[in-house]
Design a protein that fits this description.
- The chain has helices at about 1-25, 40, 50-60, 65-75, 85-95, 105-120.
- The protein has 6 helices and no strands.
């Protein structure tokens, strides 16, 4: 059963992959970088880079389904109680603004599928601790 669920998740990611990436770039990338920020970019960031966000998402919600449900829910109704970022990130960036009415739940699912499959990069160890990023 677990293998079937994994296969279905990756099939969905394949189908939605390009759409999820395009949606992420259109609706999320203005705040969340998809690469490790440079020293210069660190000065102007308005949100954590997505690789770090997804590391925390996968730690808290390790399955594709759980992570997707969290991303859809949190993106529409963010709160301190639901937040999985480190407290220093919330202090620096504040809570993410709600995307309710701006991004549909289906679009959020497609974005979440793309993010779950592609982030963080395999060798990511966190800011300043990863090789090659």
């Amino acid at each position: 059963m677990k293998k079937v669920c994994i296969l279905l998740a990756y099939m969905a990611a394949f189908v939605y992959g390009d759409t999820g990436k395009a949606l992420f770039e259109a609706k999320c990338a203005s705040c969340h970088l998809s690469t490790k920020p440079t020293t210069e970019q660190m000065k102007t960031l308005v949100a954590p880079a997505i690789m770090g966000v997804m590391r925390h998402v996968k730690e808290a919600y390790p399955t594709h389904k759980e992570a997707t449900e969290f991303i859809v829910d949190y993106s529409q109704e963010p709160s301190r109680e639901k937040a999985i970022c480190l407290s220093d990130k919330i202090a620096r960036f504040g809570l993410m603004p709600s995307l309710k009415g701006q991004v549909s739940p289906e679009e959020l699912r497609q974005i979440a599928d793309y993010l779950f499959v592609n982030f963080p990069p395999e060798n990511f160890r966190g800011m300043g601790r990863s090789k090659g990023l």
